[in-house]
From TrEMBL:
Keywords on record: Aminopeptidase, Hydrolase, Metal-binding, Protease
Gene3D superfamilies hit by this protein: Creatinase/methionine aminopeptidase superfamily (3.90.230.10), Creatinase/prolidase N-terminal domain (3.40.350.10)
Coiled coil regions in record: none
Top-level taxon: Bacteria
Domain Creatinase N-terminal: 22-145
TM ranges: none
Domain Peptidase M24 C-terminal: 546-606
Chain ranges of the Peptidase M24 domain: 327-537
Source species of the chain: Methylobacterium thuringiense
Stated name of the protein: Methionine aminopeptidase 1, mitochondrial
Molecular functions per Gene Ontology: aminopeptidase activity
Pfam short name (any one): Peptidase_M24_C
Length: 608
């Protein structure tokens, strides 16, 4: 008898609603360190979204498990600042009698500090967990309050009994058939950027960029194949690679050894100090480099050149092999999701639990082969849980889908050849007319992005409103971005490209993004429709500008029961029918007869 497959997700919530003891312990450590406040961001030293267990300080302290947020603990009060994705989740996890929950839309972290830090008080922070810009904002906020700020060793670590160790997972190579470009060629391009910037060296502080530049993948972080560490890439000399893990696969050891000097993570600061002391002008990534790195360089007599890591922009534009891999991954993923949706329809009327749905979808993905991980914890929300934008089901919150409810499932996979992210909202039983109206408006916004054609140089912010207009016309809105960048067997959330009010990076051919407008009625239901899209060149007869558009990569049916045909324009109806025909023609031949028959019915033209 074979042993059950290891699952990539768990459903416990050990950080849920922490009591006052941990806050009290932190305050005791603050007194010993001579500070009156301490900032606890949801971050590691690389400013990553998904962090290793030993960096989950915010969850340990407050109970909040979201992927973004920050707490400030003062001697007599504490606050947790979260954005619109977590305004419903945070009150469910955090004891508001101990920590005040502050929506970011109402007040920023800096503003709260400026209003609450006392005159003459000292605000402490860990310089590894804040960028130089972040530290400058903290300093300004403390000064505004009449106080000051101070870099200290992490005070949460000082009181966290049983803190997990630093991860040191296995490191492997990303095969050239998936990477599409050798690491030698990538490093040559990076050096060209350094020459143009007149910098002597680059510190790679973002593990995603480290993985891309050296064609390596690791296992130090859940859901994203990262190897934690740093690299120093001189403009002329041999690079140095500092990895937390020494568990390198033999082929990785040999290949990386030809590219760079390999050293343990603990040797990084000394190497950086020696380089800066020459002296040198060293580029630090303004988005991910901890303020401690800037201090190390300047203290040694070097110049910290704060700016974007050039790798970030290179990585965002996928090459032909990465695009082909993404298409293959989405076809494989579409088969799994379609099998799941057919299974859900058969099971839902008898009652399906949220955890049961997560496990079923993961099993369908595993059966397709090449699955390495899920790309993030699956959001499986029935009824009111679907209204929590980043809901994470636990054994305590698991509920069954009831007739007359909507079920939202947002999930993704890490395959050896690509990363996926898809959301589908389905009706169980008969949906209300309001549900159908809201779903159709969300779908109209989704179609507006999918069909968009725009001149080269257009940013995500310029087209974000396309997805919102149908909701705005009904006095409705959603409080998250419309789309984020996606990596190639890397992070499911990748910058700098995004479709959002903050999306200031121009979209370029080869970038992959999500298209995911939504609507959420608190306490009742949530709706989101998400496909991944590829930016591509678009020729227009008689056009005068170089134009771009999108290819939809994701393949899985939409719930036709939720579509109000009378609200659709002819062009919108045509898009839905063409998309469903493509889904049916692409996936149908590889499905079993029963699932193929279900797909045939699910993808019939609108109005038929």
């Amino acid at each position: 008898m074979t042993s059950p497959r290891r699952r990539f997700q768990t459903f416990d919530d050990p950080s849920h609603r922490k009591g006052p003891e941990r806050i009290a312990a932190l305050r005791a450590a603050m007194r010993e360190a001579g500070v009156d406040g301490f900032v606890v961001p949801r971050a590691d030293e690389h400013q990553s979204e998904y962090v290793p267990a030993n960096a989950e300080r915010l969850a340990w302290l407050t109970g909040f498990t979201g992927s973004a947020g920050a707490a400030v603990v003062l001697t007599d009060k504490a606050a947790l600042v979260v954005d619109g994705r977590y305004t419903l989740q945070a009150p469910e996890q955090v004891d508001a009698g101990i920590v005040t929950i502050v929506p970011l839309a109402e007040k920023s972290l800096d503003t709260w500090i400026g209003e609450n830090l006392g005159v003459g008080e000292v605000l402490g922070y860990d310089p590894w967990l804040h960028t130089a810009d972040g530290v400058a904002r903290l300093e300004r906020a403390a000064t505004k309050a009449g106080g000051s700020s101070k870099a200290v060793a992490n005070l949460v670590d000082a009181v966290w009994a049983g803190r997990p160790p630093q991860p040191a997972g296995r490191v492997v190579l990303q095969p050239i058939e998936h990477a599409g470009e050798t690491a030698q060629a990538k490093l040559a391009r990076i050096r060209e950027k350094l020459t143009a910037a007149k910098a002597d060296a680059l510190v790679i502080s973002d593990p995603h960029n480290l993985a891309w530049a050296f064609n390596l993948r690791g296992s130090d972080v859940t859901h994203t194949p990262l190897a934690l560490g740093y690299a120093i890439v001189p403009r002329e000399d041999r690079p140095s690679l500092f990895l937390s893990s020494r568990d390198l696969a033999p082929e990785a050891q040999a290949d990386l050894g030809t590219l760079a000097d390999l050293a343990p993570r603990r040797a990084f600061e000394d190497a950086l100090t020696a380089l800066a002391g020459k002296p040198s002008k060293i580029r630090l990534d303004i988005a991910t480099a901890g303020a401690a790195l800037k201090e190390t360089i300047t203290s040694a007599g070097g110049t910290a050149d704060m700016g974007p890591d050039p790798i970030t922009g290179m990585k965002a534009i996928k090459n032909a092999a990465e695009i082909d891999g993404s298409r293959a991954a989405h076809r494989r993923d579409g088969l799994a999701v379609t099998r799941f949706l057919a299974w859900l329809q058969r099971k839902a009327h008898g009652g399906v639990g949220e955890i049961q749905a997560v496990e079923a979808l993961e099993d369908f993905r595993a059966e397709g082969g090449l699955l390495r991980e899920v790309s993030f914890p699956t959001i499986s929300g029935s009824g009111p849980n679907g209204a929590i934008v980043h809901y994470r089901v636990t054994t305590a919150t698991d509920r069954r889908v009831e007739p007359g409810e909507l079920f939202l499932i947002d999930s993704g996979a890490q395959y050896a050849d690509g990363t996926t992210d898809i959301t589908r909202t389905v009706a169980v039983g008969t949906p209300t007319e309001e549900m159908r109206d809201r779903f159709t408006r969300v779908l109209q916004g989704h179609i507006a992005i999918a069909r968009a054609v725009f001149p080269k140089g257009t940013t995500g912010a310029q087209i974000d409103a396309f997805a919102r207009r149908p909701l705005w016309e009904a006095g409705l809105e959603f409080d998250h971005g419309t789309g984020h960048g996606v990596g190639a067997f890397l992070s499911v959330h990748e910058g700098p490209q995004r479709i959002a009010k903050t999306g200031t990076t121009a979209l370029e051919s080869g970038m992959i993004l999500s298209n995911e407008p939504g609507y959420y009625r608190a306490g009742t239901y949530g709706i989101r429709i998400e496909n991944l899209i590829l930016v591509e060149e678009r020729a227009i007869a008689g056009g005068e500008r170089q134009m771009l558009g999108f290819e939809t990569l994701t393949l899985a049916p939409l719930d036709r029961h939720l579509i109000v045909a009378d609200l659709l324009s002819p062009a919108e109806t045509e898009w839905i029918d063409a998309y469903h025909a493509r889904v049916r023609e692409t996936l149908g031949p590889d499905l079993d007869p029963d699932t193929r028959a279900w797909l045939e019915a699910a993808t019939q033209p609108i109005g038929s």
